[in-house]
Amino acid sequence: MAHNSLYARCLRFQAISLFISTAALIFISCGHSHAAPQEIPISTLLDAIAKYGQGQSYAATPPAVSSTLPLNFAGNSIDNAPEDFYPPLINALLTHERFEDLEMIAAKARAEKSRHSGGIWVIKDFYEAVATPLATPLAPSPSAQAWDAQTALINKWVAAFPRSATARISLANLFASRAWDARGHDYADSVDDKSWETFYDYMNRAKSVALDAAALKDRDPYWFDLMMQISLAEGWDSAAEKTLFELASAFEPSYYHYYRAQALYLLPRWHGEEGEMEAFAEQTLKRLSEPTASMMYFDIVTTYACGCMDDAPTLHGASWPKLKEGYENLVRLYKVSSLKANRYAYLTYVANDKAAASEAFKQLGDQYVRDSWKNRMQFETARAWALNP
């Protein structure tokens, strides 16, 4: 298992927010230098993972949406909210304790396998929206009081709907989010013992509640997503992680966020070896049929070929024509999102494809997404190169 935790530059931590995606979305940090206490044996988790979804389908007919919906927020509603408005809308429902509406929105998103622009799964956005208190200009990072308030609201939701897997997955995801918030984004060797203690405490809470959710009737693709976040945090061995990924992708083959999580795990600065993530991307091209294969390839490669890394810009040997094809398929099927448009613009810059870059930046305009670039200066440099003769 390779970490390079003391020497590789740290991947920037991303609090659960709009599209992290995945980064994580995804929840990114340096490799661990402390061993996590295994209060819940990994064998127990793997047993639950193996059983999850066996003989059951989550894609049932969605329920009728409550008559109290839509909740208006700055002139937008749940049904037509732009991607930037979705988290505030979901958080507003939680704040007003409209738990029945949250249940129905989640059930509808699961059943319809609905996507936001760019192909991002709505159910993922749903859970990430309820998992973290909304940031404000005055409070860009959640305070302990804000975390406590969010936890209290979701606990009320669990109490009101004790048989709801949605409520429990939301609570488990909040605990995982709070664990990463306590861990922070510093080097592993600079995190103090109290922060490690808090990190592992909340991560163990997340595992416990996730197991409770697995015992309930309803099944949800995000449950596997959450387990992949936990496996990354605890550094499960490669065999256990591969089993988790295979079961997850079999449960919902089109949920591309599993593939991004697997690519993140395979980064050498996390738990992989040199060349593993590139091999995984190539295997995915052979494993799936088009147009899914090229779209998945784009999403995998942009996990590690992005300005969010501190490494020298590179495509890591990826096929630029196949990346272009994947993005074109994404736009054709799911329209344009500012997040993926930024990812694509970065790739055109790294690939030195000025014609593609010129078109990409013309369409992108000033829609800078920080997590796709090293910094604003890199974005401006790339845009100037693309748009100037």
Describe this protein's structure.
By secondary structure, the chain is mainly alpha-helical. It folds into two domains: 22-274, no CATH class; 294-389, no CATH class. It contains 16 helices and one strand. The protein has helices at 42-51, 86-95, 99-112, 122-131, 144-160, 165-183, 193-214, 221-234, 238-251, 257-265, 276-287, 292-304, 320-334, 338-350, 354-364, 376-387, and one strand spanning 22-23. Helix 5 (144-160) packs antiparallel against helix 6 (165-183), helix 6 runs parallel beside helix 8 and helix 15 (354-364) packs across helix 16 (376-387).
Write the layout of secondary structure elements.
Blueprint: E1 22-23, H1 42-51, H2 86-95, H3 99-112, H4 122-131, H5 144-160, H6 165-183, H7 193-214, H8 221-234, H9 238-251, H10 257-265, H11 276-287, H12 292-304, H13 320-334, H14 338-350, H15 354-364, H16 376-387
Helix pairs in contact: 2-4, 4-6, 5-6, 6-7, 6-8, 7-8, 8-9, 8-10, 9-10, 10-11, 10-12, 11-12, 12-13, 14-15, 15-16
Write a concise keyword list for the protein shown above.
389 residues; mainly alpha; 55% helix; 1% strand
Sequence of secondary-structure elements: EHHHHHHHHHHHHHHHH
Q: Uncertain runs with pLDDT below 50, 5 residues or more?
A: 1-37
What is the C-alpha radius of gyration, as a whole number of Å? 20 Å
Largest sheet: none
DSSP E strands, number: 1
Shape: globular
Number of helices: 16
Derived from helix and strand composition plus strand pairing, the structural class reads: mainly alpha
Strand content: under 5%
Q: Report helical residue fraction.
A: 55-70%
